[in-house]
Amino acid sequence: MTSLLLAGISSLVTNDPQRGGLIGEVPDAAVVIEGSTFAWVGSRAEAPAADDALDLGGRAVVPGFVDSHSHLVFAGDRAEEFAARMTGQPYSAGGIRTTVAATRKATDEQLAANIARLVAEMRRQGTTTVEIKSGYGLTTADEARSLALAREFTDETTYLGAHVVPPEYADDPAGYVDLVTGPMLDASAPHARWVDVFVERGAFDADQARAILLAGQAKGLGLRVHANQLGTGPGVQLACELGAAAADHCTHLTDADVDALASSGVVAGLLPAVEFSTRSPYPDARRLIDAGVTVALASDCNPGSCYSSSIPLCIALAVREMRMSPAEALWSATAGGAASLRRNDIGRITPGARADLAVLDAPSYLHLAYRPGVPLVAQSFVGGRPG
Predict the structure, then answer these.
(1) Phi/psi at 140 (nearest 5 deg)?
(2) Is the separation of the CB atoms in 228 and 248 below 8 Å?
(3) How far apart are CA 330 and CA 62, in angstroms?
(4) Residue burial 47-74, b: 16+ Cβ < 10 Å; e: rest
């Protein structure tokens, strides 16, 4: 097996608590990759020999970003809806139906090409793992094909047939829940790792969501919840009750919600580019972290509420608008995302972990927040391969 020594690293973020601090930063560092995993991590002066070597010229290295929440299977865009929001129209869940109509009309080739474009865009910005949801088909055939296409790009696929009730079921939401928990689930589950529900006014209530999540769980799917985005509601409590991996959005929380997240171990997925794109209040990350809640940062890349694939943007927003330290924000976009996906092989640079990393054209990870909007990722490695 060929080994590769990466040297000339000014600052290496490992997310290894044994190295001290939240992010386990190592100055003047080196890394050895063997095959698809990290074999050795430490000081450059102590680095072992390897078959090949690459000098990174004093650049910083961080774990590859883990984007634990995205919606990449869609057609069309909603730029006009964005423009309307910027002139005062509030965001609501109803715009999803516009994308549903376009997605149903698109061919498999068109949808796959769009996913490929966005995944490549993410990779250029340092994202090495991405979760992709369905949710813009909302028929049995369209949800199943959406997940089959997403599975070509990631193992982290999520069945979101319960995104909204489609127009043809407007007068029969109970019938749609029966479809989501029956034939649609049967067709979609083979292509999914997770099941998700949008628990919100205009989408699904607690009883509907519980039925959908339990049906998915019975099929062997892990649980995720879109929770408390537009207002306080039952989403977070339901996620904690059922032991979901993550409750995402968490924009509007009661004290009881925060306590439930802290005691249950459910990861709070925060999506600050959504608030940026909708002019909504940002989640209070400081409140969550101080309460002992595990926080993940993700893009929520989608054509409606947030058409951005940039985790560096999310890190900068988290630091500026959500009172996270630069180290907390980076940890949440890497190890926090891994926790949201219940993975321990990604989001860290430690021996045995998958060799995913991002090389920054900067001397320190601090520049991710210090230089917002600047394309700092010079190169990414995924499973030991440059990409």
Answers:
(1) -55, -50
(2) no
(3) 9
(4) beebeeebebeebbbbbbbbbbbbbbbb
* CA angle at 338 for the pair 2 and 216, rounded to the nearest 5°: 120
Q: For domain 3-63+348-386, give the CATH superfamily.
A: Urease, subunit C, domain 1 (2.30.40.10)
Number of neighbouring beta carbons within 10 Å of residue 80: 9
pTM of the model: 0.97
How many CB atoms within 10 Å of residue 139? Answer: 17
- Average pLDDT (275-295) is 97
Confidence of residue 92 (pLDDT cuts 50, 70, 90): low
Distance from chain centroid for Cα 60: 23
Taking a C-beta distance cutoff of 8 angstroms, is the pair 195, 213 a contact?
yes
Classified as helix, coil or strand, 245 is coil
In this structure, the chain runs to a length of 387
Residue 270: its H or E element: strand 267-270
Q: What pLDDT does 80 receive? A: 87
Please report, for residues 5, 34, 128, the alpha-carbon distance to residue 360 in angstroms, rounded to integers and kept in the order given: 17, 22, 14
Query: With 80 as the cut, is the pLDDT of residue 47 above it?
Result: yes
| CATH T-level assignment (fold) for domain 65-340 | TIM Barrel (3.20.20)
Residue with tokens 């890190």: 315
Exposed (0-12), middle (13-18) or buried (19+): which is 27, by Cβ within 10 Å? exposed
**∠ CA(285), CA(319), CA(96), 5° rounding?**
65
Q: 74 — alpha (psi -120 to 50), left (phi > 0) or beta?
A: beta
The CA distance from 256 to 234, in Å, is 11
Kindly write down the DSSP assignment for every residue of 320-355, as one continuous string: HHS---HHHHHHHHTHHHHHHTT-SSSSS-STTSB-
Domain extents in the chain: 3-63+348-386, 65-340
Q: How many CA atoms lie within 13 A of 327 on its CB side?
A: 13
Backbone angles phi, psi at 28, to 5 degrees: 45, 65
- Fold equal for 3-63+348-386 and 65-340: no
235-242 and 206-218 helices, crossing angle to 10°? 30
Q: Which helix (H) or strand (E) holds 258?
A: helix 255-264
